[in-house]
Design brief:
CATH architecture of one domain: Alpha/alpha barrel
CATH class of one domain: Mainly Alpha
Mean pLDDT: 93
Shape: globular
Largest sheet: 3 strands, antiparallel
Number of strands: 20
Bound molecules: 1-deoxymannojirimycin
Radius of gyration: 20 Å
Structural class: mainly alpha
Helix content: 40-55%
Number of helices: 17
Low-confidence stretches: 1-19, 463-468
Distance between the termini: 39 Å
Oligomer: single chain
């Protein structure tokens, strides 16, 4: 019985007919199905998933992440949450690695204790742990995964008890005491997908109400003239702290969640918010170079572009632009990000897009560029995007695969390895590579919305608004 409940393909196929669908610019109901798999590259990606997971199991089982150089585990807090297990489970399911998925699920059921006696990041716990549990529940129907999701959702809720409704950046998962007075826009505005799904699945509207409150507080903070936000805010007063408008780390997933929240919940107000924000960003933060369209950093009050700085994280935007219907800008910016990728081999965390001078040289096995390739390929069927994905895959294998896992690079220029394999490598980078070469019926984008950690959440049928 359990094995049957654990057959992900059955559930995915069932959900293709039973789940709702959203209208987006990438997949119409049959369009996604017309994409054929590249079975050769797909199996090469699957081998990398099995390898990375196998090394984590061998050297770091139960710990948060693998240290691939020292062949050991590392933990974020006083007690591990098995971050790689919770974050990686749905990738194992999607790739059809059933034995590995069963082992991951068994660990979550018997060993995942969410009463961690530490001040944990509310944002990271939401996107990795809650997102991973909800997605694995959606793919399998396993009720214990939903129970665990409710448990972590309840432990996160005290963070929203602030005068503004902006959540605090940390909460002690054991005592429920939230802390931190300043948070960034991504940490404040990246909740509606997980909390919206949790409310739908549990019937408890407290979660989605909290997420909506945080988005409303950000909306109220946008500069009335430019429509832009800064990067960080005081969650008690709403006062701006870092007054830099940009689309990379610290802001990125707020923009992504306005669009995807509208798709997941069928909520036109969120969709309208996304279009208003992206219009302001396009008006004030763009710059064109010989390599294509770039997004820099500016002053949210005057709207003046100040720094030609971008990085690996910001290259999620081509995918979001494309999903939001702007395939022209998505393609233009995606090409520019990919020119930079070819210049460096793998994208560093921060660089000047005019000169390609490096501001932060590390490459952390991040997913954003291949994430954008997935949206661009599914929207355009242009084989160039798959070809670029093959180059990324082979570069990762050549430069980052070591004997005991995949290693980050401390400097893209020297290729020196770092002793870390972040949990998002399995959750996101390898999943998006898999999806790039899978057929279009694998998690079609009209039926699934991906959270910012690449956890697919089902678009629900029926009345769409909840907790509004
Ligand atoms: C992930 O945890 C998420 O994608 C987040 O939105 C940004 N940082 C990493 C990946 O780069």
């Amino acid at each position: 019985m359990i094995r049957k409940a654990w057959c992900p393909l059955l559930l995915i196929v069932a959900c293709l007919t039973a789940c709702g669908s959203s209208e987006n610019a990438v997949d119409d109901a049959e369009g996604g199905g017309r994409i054929a798999a590249d079975t050769v590259t797909l199996s090469r990606v699957r081998e990398q998933i099995a390898f990375a997971w196998g090394k984590y199991v061998e050297h770091a089982w139960g710990h948060d992440e693998l240290r691939p150089l020292s062949a050991s585990g590392s933990d974020w807090y006083a007690r591990p949450m098995g971050l790689t297990i919770v974050d990686g489970l749905d990738t194992l399911l999607v790739a059809g690695l059933h034995d590995e998925a069963n082992a991951a699920r068994a660990w979550i059921v018997s060993d995942l204790d969410l009463a961690v006696p530490s001040n944990v990041s509310t944002f990271e716990t939401n996107i990795r742990v809650l997102g991973g549990l909800l997605s694995a529940h959606a793919l399998t129907g396993d009720p214990i995964l939903l129970q665990k999701a409710v448990d972590v959702g309840d432990r996160l809720l005290p963070a929203f008890d602030t005068p503004t409704g902006m959540p605090r950046p940390e909460v002690n998962l054991s005592t429920g005491v939230a802390s931190g007075a300043v948070s960034n826009v991504a940490q404040i505005g990246t909740w509606i997908l997980e909390f919206g799904t949790l409310s739908r699945m549990s019937g408890d509207t407290r979660y989605v109400t909290a997420a909506r409150g945080a988005l409303a507080a950000l909306e109220a903070s946008r500069n009335p003239d430019t429509g832009l936000l800064g990067t960080s805010y005081d969650v008690d007063t709403g006062a701006p702290i870092v007054q830099i408008a940009q689309v990379g780390g610290g802001v990125d997933s707020w923009i992504e969640y306005l669009l995807k929240g509208g798709l997941l919940l069928g909520d036109p107000a969120l969709t309208a918010s996304y279009h208003s924000v992206i219009d302001a960003v396009n008006e004030h933060l763009t710059e064109r170079t010989n390599d294509g369209l770039w997004y820099g950093a500016g002053d949210p009050v005057s709207g003046r572009l100040m720094f030609p700085l971008t990085g690996a994280l910001a290259c999620f935007l081509p995918g979001t632009l494309t999903l939001g219907g702007d395939v022209v800008r998505g393609t233009d910016h995606g090409r520019a990000c990919d020119v930079a990728r070819r210049h460096f081999g793998l994208l560093p965390d921060a660089f000047n897009y005019r000169t390609y001078g490096v501001a932060a040289a590390n490459h952390d096995l991040r997913p954003e560029l291949v994430e954008s390739f997935v949206y661009l390929y599914r929207a355009t069927r242009d084989e160039t995007w798959r070809e670029r994905g093959r180059e990324v895959l082979e570069t990762l294998i050549a430069r980052c695969r070591v004997e005991d896992g995949y290693a980050t690079l401390t400097d893209v220029r020297t290729g020196e390895h770092g002793d870390a394999m972040p949990s998002f490598f399995l959750a996101e980078t390898l999943k998006y590579l898999y999806l790039l070469f899978a057929d279009g019926a694998t998690l079609p984008l009209n039926a699934w919305v991906f959270n910012t950690e690449a956890h697919p959440l089902p678009v629900f049928p029926g009345p769409q608004r909840i907790g509004a």
